[in-house]
TrEMBL record, chain A:
Domain of life: Bacteria
Pfam families: Cupredoxin_1
UniProt keyword list: Signal
Protein's name in the database: EfeO-type cupredoxin-like domain-containing protein
Residue span, EfeO-type cupredoxin-like domain: 7-107
Keyword Signal among record annotations: yes
Signal sequence extent: 1-20
UniProtKB/TrEMBL annotation, chain B:
GO cellular component, one term: high-affinity iron permease complex
Lineage top rank: taxon: Bacteria
Membrane topology note: Multi-pass membrane protein
Transmembrane segments: 6-28, 35-53, 68-87, 108-126, 146-171, 178-203, 247-264
Location (main, coarse): membrane
Cellular localisation: Membrane
UniProt keyword Membrane present: yes
Signal peptide stretch: none
Source organism of this protein record: Halothiobacillus diazotrophicus
Protein's UniProt name: Iron permease
Pfam families: FTR1
GO molecular function, one term: ferrous iron transmembrane transporter activity
Family under the similarity heading: Belongs to the oxidase-dependent Fe transporter (OFeT) (TC 9.A.10.1) family.
Keyword Transmembrane helix: yes
Amino acid sequence: MSVFKASVFFAALVSSVAVAAPPEVHVVIKDHRFTPSEVKVPAGQKIRLIVDNQDATPEEFESHELNREKVIAGKSKATIYIGPLEPGRYPFFGEFNEATAQGVVVAE
Amino acid sequence: MISAAIIVFRETLEAALILGIIAAATVGVTGRARWLTAGVLAGIAGSLVVASLTEQIANLAEGMGQELFNALVLGVVVLMLAWHNIWMARHGATLARDARQLGRDVQAGAKALPILFVVIALAVLREGSETALFLYGMSLGGQHDAWAIVNGAGMGLAAGAAAGLALYLGFLRIPTRWFFVVTSGLILFLAAAMASQVANLLIQSDLLPSLAAPLWDTSGLLSNDSAVGLLLQTLVGYDANPAGMQVIFYVATAALILLGMRLARQKPAPVGSPH
Ligand SMILES: [Cu+2]
């Protein structure tokens, strides 16, 4: 296989993987708050939720409605797969800073 | 201080309930206090190690290290609880056939202690590493002074331990002939509950399909947030909105353990031979 063919093949492979991968949604933790605090996602589809903790302290992403729980170390990112969700509101919070760290996933 | 107390209480409660059930299941077995204490201490030591390695663990397996690590810890606990129940079923049958065996059987019960040591150490490890991280994060946060954190954590720990102790003392009041049924029943539920958590962790990291998610939603009736919900969650794995895969894991684990116990009971160990 020539270098050209190989790179075309590789590009096709990468793009097909990219198509197959669930959509990404980003949330940032800063000063023990989620931004955005309301995250819109498509209903009926699996989502890659990427939580970027920019605080120096660890946080635990938790949601009873989404049935998810994950510790995120300070200054690091975590990936959490959620859904496919029925249309509706799914609150989440930071267990280590529940007073301020509140958010909601809205599936529509 | 209140948030420290609540979080430490919740984590302690989970570990304390498991410890309470196991302590009740091993009443009268020589050397159990030593093994159970060692399990708690090993779990606390392990918690500090795991908490300090959180970032490294999380980065393993393309960011899914935490899920896989927890799934592995819980998976090992499920296997050991299953093994313990099946082993006790066999042991119990022998015991029923010849009451004079009692002395020897209590001694044989001591052989299950290393397994239970591991169960307790891992249960404490799982809850403890979260607690250690939380307290560490709080102390870094700066808005709380160290004394308030220590105070809150101490209150939470005491309350959680008291709940575990209350459960244990409650068990001791169960009439002898029901005792084995109740303790092995609780261990069965505990194992099934943990298997469903394993499924949830694998779904969260996209290694298993969720099937129906959620299969049902009873959070309006009894939420996992409420005190009763939390208690039932720890004891029997109550989940207000479980995925279909979780239910499959739960039912399959419970069925396999029951089957194992039944088979073990039908084929009791030969009298007089050590297990
Ligand atoms: Cu926990």
